[in-house]
Amino acid sequence: xxxxxxxxxxxxxxxxxxxxxxxxxxxxxxxxxx
Length: 34
Description:
Blueprint (H helix, E strand, L loop, with lengths): L1 H32 L1
């Protein structure tokens, strides 16, 4: 049970880090367009 929870936590952290990276990628693309 605890193992599953830890795995779930790790997955959510991974997705959160990906979401955090998205805005910077979006901004960099926007600045390239200008």
